[in-house]
Amino acid sequence: MAKVSFRLVMPERELLATEADMVVVPGSEGDFGVLHGHAPLISTVRPGVLEVLQGNKVEQRFLVVGGIAEVTAERCTVLADEAEPFEQVTAEQLADRERVAQEELTDAATDAERAAAQKNLAIAKDLRRAQAYYASR
Known about the structure:
Elements: E1 4-9, E2 14-20, E3 22-27, E4 30-34, E5 41-45, E6 48-54, E7 57-71, E8 75-85, H1 91-107, H2 111-135
Parallel strand pairs: 1-8
Antiparallel strand pairs: 1-2, 3-4, 3-6, 5-7, 6-7, 7-8
């Protein structure tokens, strides 16, 4: 089986560059799997879990906050706003992130601050749900 070249990149650094049998990306329209020979596409990435598979086994998982995914027949590149290896993120850290976002929403004084806080709170809730779901798998 041919491999797909995969890169996970954040603004400040590259997290992963590898060859994989399949990559599952949390796209804004739903999760999508990328195999070698995939049709070209560009998608936004929603908060969730990105998986890198070797054979039929998930080798690596990353919690991603958002970004852009570019897919060609030979490669998949995810430019993530934030990403961390799944096993390095705890439920407590995500609960704290949600608590801070809720406090920011409560303290928001302007419409712009309120909108930013609402977005951060929605992201924090999405990440907690994703972490809880994948932690049990």
